[in-house]
TrEMBL record:
Species in which this protein is naturally found: Roseivivax lentus
PANTHER family, A to Z: SODIUM/HYDROGEN EXCHANGER (PTHR10110), SODIUM_HYDROGEN EXCHANGER 7 (PTHR10110:SF86)
Gene Ontology MF: a single term: potassium:proton antiporter activity
GO cellular component, one term: plasma membrane
Gene Ontology terms: biological process: regulation of intracellular pH; sodium ion import across plasma membrane
Cell compartments where the protein resides: Cell membrane
CDD domains in UniProt: CAP_ED
Protein name per its UniProtKB record: Sodium/proton antiporter, CPA1 family
Coiled coil feature spans: none
Keywords, alphabetical: Cell membrane, Ion transport, Membrane, Sodium, Sodium transport, Transmembrane, Transmembrane helix, Transport
PROSITE patterns membership: CNMP_BINDING_3 (PS50042)
Principal location class: membrane
Sequence intervals crossing the membrane: 6-24, 31-50, 74-93, 100-122, 128-152, 173-191, 203-228, 240-268, 288-308, 320-341, 361-380, 392-416
Length: 837
């Protein structure tokens, strides 16, 4: 085919992409429906011009369109990795982890159930071989979420719901394509009744092998990117190579799932790259990938749609009936999951609740798209697949895709309207009034400053200010006098606004490079949880989410386990340093919010709500300070190092801004600005590296601050610090259980514990000890000790503790005091005192 013609067709396709999006917005239809429609129109028009005798001038172009040199392998190896990789880069994996149960249910469980249900039903109705029907069912099990997600966003549906849909799309594509590859092998080998035991044993290998390839390659590529700090284009180029290398390596070398490899690579990059490359490079990389994925997704849809007329060229009435049956079976299978399994999991508290109207919208919005067409095309192109199977898959998969696009896609917005999802709730409507009022207050201040700077006519400024003031007063009055909002809802609105302001401050700190991308994502995820918890449960939910933000997450607990059990220090060192940095950032941000409450929220919701928010904010500040004080006690001086680093980075940012302003004002030339910027970039790169934290070498300093060890000389203190073993406990952890061996004493370096014995609870805090009474009385433990706050403990074995007790009067007094408090006699203590006279 002529290169000029191919180039012209490609240019024409990009033109189609350019007009499709505004056209979809204009006629209020999903973008994918418009792309598919345009692709079909182009293909039908090309067929018409090729066959008509009206003109032959367009025959070369029409022939080139209908015989465009693109096959399913091009879709699978060129376009699909781009789409999957970009989706993972755009995901907030921390928030996805909160909803992993519904995502896996909708993605993996639903795909398998739909494949089995549709395959068995179609085989029973049509008499076609079961394995061929299962292959078709796997093909039609993939969903394209773009339509329903875009509409959910336009109607301000909960962000969590959009996350579930996006996560489902990513995972169900991977599961369905892996299942498709397995079934395709059976079909090509001509196995009418495959060994399902064989398939079950092979499937984990496909998944795990692909995941391993993606993980290893991504780690290697991110490691390489970290050495290319000043070469942003090189970093982005390496990221472009990664998904294709992962896909090819998994498929061609290991025989595993290329799709799983790409997904694993994308997730690994999302987690590790923000800490290895600069925030600017990471942001630009995501922008580049967003554009690549937009082009790839649109092109794959248009090019696949060009093939629809050819795939449906010999459709019969029986085929139409089977298409409708497949549509009914697929909807039934999806409904069973959405309205049966998902509510059951919510009832068992294994999954967050998804309200019925949203489940109905998800059901009807399960459109099939480009991936379904590409997989169907792969079957029709394979000469190793029997002809009757190729025809059946091509027609039914294509016909079902058209059904979802034309019938479901065109009516999706109407269905959402009938479900009432396009209307704001009373709370959201009140929030909209609040946002308008707050925004207008800011606008008035900015406009006043602008008119002052430009020295505009006094009469003009006064008349416009009066008109704007009337509008502002009306907006504030509407926010204050909304009858649909109860007092508790006003508090909820204030909490949502407060969390949104907190998010804005964190983003500003991130732009100032005061915090890394990785940690900024973590803090922003915590803020998102605050918003959602406040919307769902008001003050209670906000307090719970605030405690969780300060508490120890699963990764930290795993690092603590590795340290406590296996003495592996590196993960705990890194996560402890992260915790330091996050707590410092939270402390800075929270102290900025008091002014926001007084400036914005007090005027709209009144003094009572503002005072309550101040109280909640003060409790959060207290929790952060308490956690930070505990860390400062454990690692003296490290927090100060981080604070000094923050000041230095802020100074460098301000210096950079000053140079930029001097360049804009023409006071320095481009050459001088470049030279200054390069020097500054070198200093910024040095400050990007966080000071190392050694969690092992701090015990002596901690022990030195204990009043119980105040009598010990330096040599004894050094020996004691080597004998002490650091233990960490999260809130709620059981440190000592009843009837356990009494062979260890614990000193509380930070945090607090609750000791329960004989139905009485005792609370112990920093500087106190526990476990000594059962040891000294040589009795089984009758008490249970549980952490009521994140704790750092120093553990000492029995032999060394007895030796220390004989030497330290302060320790003897502490043991005697605790024994007296619990009315327990300790003969060993009396023996020591008697021996000393």
């Amino acid at each position: 085919m002529d290169v000029v013609v191919i180039t012209a067709i490609i240019a024409g396709l990009f033109f189609v992409l350019g007009i499709a999006e505004p056209l979809a917005a204009r006629i209020r239809l999903p973008y994918t429906v418009i792309l598919a429609g345009l692709g079909i129109v182009i293909a039908v028009s090309a067929s018409f011009f090729l066959r008509t005798e009206i003109t032959d001038a367009l025959n070369p172009i029409a022939n080139a369109i209908l015989n465009f040199p693109i096959r399913s392998n091009v879709f699978l190896y060129v376009f699909l990795p781009t789409l999957l990789f970009q989706v993972t880069l755009g995901m907030n994996l921390r928030r996805m982890a909160d909803d992993w149960v519904p995502i896996l249910v909708l993605a993996v469980v639903a795909v398998f159930f739909s494949t089995i249900f549709v395959g068995l039903s179609l085989s029973w109705v049509s008499g076609i071989d079961l394995v061929a029907c299962l292959l078709l069912a796997a093909i039609v099990s993939t969903t394209d979420p773009s339509a329903v997600v875009s509409i959910f966003r336009s109607i301000a549906a909960p962000r969590r719901l959009a996350r579930i849909i996006e996560g489902e799309s990513l995972m169900n594509d991977a599961a369905a394509i892996a299942l498709f590859g397995l079934l395709m092998g059976f079909v090509m080998r001509g196995v009418p009744d495959p060994s399902w035991q064989d398939a079950i044993l092979r499937f984990p290998g496909l998944i795990l092998g692909g995941a391993a390839v993606g993980l290893v390659l991504a780690r290697a590529m991110v490691f390489l990117m970290s050495f290319l700090d000043r070469h942003e284009a090189a970093q982005i180029s390496i990221s472009v190579a990664l998904p294709y290398l992962a896909y090819i390596a998994a498929e061609q070398i290991l025989g595993a799932s290329g799709v799983i490899a790409v997904v694993a690579a994308g997730m690994t990059v999302t987690v590790t790259a923000p800490g290895a490359i600069s925030p600017t490079s990471w942001a630009n990389m995501r922008e580049v990938w967003g554009l690549l994925a937009h082009w790839a997704g649109a092109l794959i849809f248009v090019l696949a749609a060009l093939l629809i007329p050819r795939l449906l060229s010999d459709v019969t009435l029986v085929d139409i009936g089977l298409i409708l049956f497949v549509a009914l079976a697929a909807l039934t299978a999806r409904a069973v999951i959405l309205f049966g399994l998902l509510p059951t999991l919510s009832f068992l508290r294994l999954s967050p609740n998804v309200e019925r109207p949203y489940r109905a919208a998800i059901l009807w919005g399960g459109l099939r798209g480009a991936v379904t067409l590409v997989l169907a095309l792969a079957v029709t192109e394979s000469l190793r697949v029997p002809p009757e199977t190729r025809r059946m898959v091509g027609i039914l998969a294509t016909g079902y895709t058209l059904f979802t696009l034309v019938v479901q896609g065109s009516s999706l917005r109407w269905v959402i309207g009938r479900l009432g999802l396009d209307k704001l709730s009373a709370l959201d409507a009140a929030l909209a009034k609040q946002v308008i009022a707050v925004a207008l207050q800011t606008v008035r201040e900015d406009v006043a400053q602008t008119t002052k700077n430009y020295d505009l006519s006094h009469d003009t400024v006064r008349s416009e200010a009066k008109a704007f003031g009337e509008r502002l007063d009306g907006a504030v009055k509407a926010a204050e006098t909304s009858e649909d909002v109860l007092d508790r809802d006003r508090i909820t609105l204030g909490l949502v606004a407060l969390a949104s302001a907190e998010r804005d401050i964190v983003i500003e700190r991130f732009r100032e490079r005061a915090v890394s991308t990785r940690l900024a994502d973590r803090v922003l995820s915590d803020i998102d949880r605050l918003v959602e918890a406040a919307r769902q449960s008001g003050r209670t939910g906000y307090r719970r989410a605030a405690r969780e933000a300060v508490g120890l997450n699963t990764s930290f607990r795993a690092a603590v386990w590795l340290f406590n059990r296996l003495k592996i220090t590196r993960p705990l060192s890194r996560l402890t340093a992260d915790r330091f940095e996050v707590l410092l950032l939270q402390g800075l941000v929270l102290r900025d919010l008091d002014g926001f409450i007084d400036r914005r929220i007090r005027r709209i919701h009144g003094k009572r709500v503002a005072d309550l928010l101040h109280e909640l904010l003060a409790r959060r500040v207290e929790m952060v300070d308490q956690a930070l004080d505990g860390l400062r006690l454990q690692y003296p001086g490290y927090a100060e190092e981080l604070e000094r680093r923050f000041i230095r980075r802020t100074a460098l940012r301000l210096e950079k801004r000053e140079y930029d302003e001097l360049l804009e004002e023409g006071l320095i030339g481009v050459e001088l600005h470049t030279d200054l910027s390069e020097r500054l970039a070198s200093r910024m790169a040095q400050e990007e590296k966080r000071p190392a934290l050694d969690i092992v070498l701090q015990k002596a300093e901690i022990a030195r601050q204990f009043p119980l060890f105040s009598e010990l000389d330096e040599a004894t203190l050094q020996r004691l610090s080597k004998a002490l073993v650091t233990r960490y406990a999260a809130e709620g952890d059981v440190i000592v259980s009843r009837n356990s061996a009494a062979d260890t004493v614990y000193f509380i370096a930070s945090g607090a514990v609750e000791l329960r014995a004989r139905g009485i609870a005792y609370r112990l805090g920093r500087g106190e000890l526990f476990g000594q009474l059962a040891m000294l009385t040589q009795s089984a433990r009758r008490a249970e000790v549980r952490a009521i706050a994140p704790c750092t403990l120093l553990a000492l074995d029995e032999q060394r503790f007895r030796r220390l007790l004989r030497r330290s009067k302060a320790m003897q007094d502490a043991v005697a005091k605790s024994a007296e408090k619990r009315s327990i006699k300790v003969p060993y203590l009396d023996e020591i005192r008697a021996a000393k006279g």
